[in-house]
Amino acid sequence: QVQLVESGGGLVQAGGSLRLSCAASGRTFSTYAMGWFRQAPGKEREFVAAVSWSSGKNTNYADSVKGRFTISRDNAKNTVYLQMNSLKPEDTAVYFCAARKFTMSTVVSAYDYWGQGTQVTVSS
Q1: What is the DSSP secondary-structure string of 13-72?
Q2: How many CB atoms lie within 10 A of CB 47?
Q3: pLDDT one-digit tens code per residue, 43-65
């Protein structure tokens, strides 16, 4: 079992930055690929970014955030981060982190463990 707890959300003006963190329980964090997803009101949950297991040398991003968001992981701290720069009002959503064994995926249903989410609101 893996428990995930997100933090770092909040209210920010357009053009600003936030860094989300996701702390994981357990001793096998490095064996999990990690992903960030988001869900805006009335919309489906969508993929944002993913980082590969172990060293995290491989990453994948949704086109809508490419060049603005950066995902990274610190296995010593059992934590994955999402650095969000140049935020836009359309980035407003609840952001979730998720974990699955080994391989990255952009698919919501491929992930086995989810956090409770953290709200990000970007004002124009």
Answers
A1: ETT--EEEEEEE-SS-GGGEEEEEEEE-TTS--EEEEEE-STT---EEE-TTTTTTEEEE
A2: 21
A3: 999 999 999 999 889 999 999 99
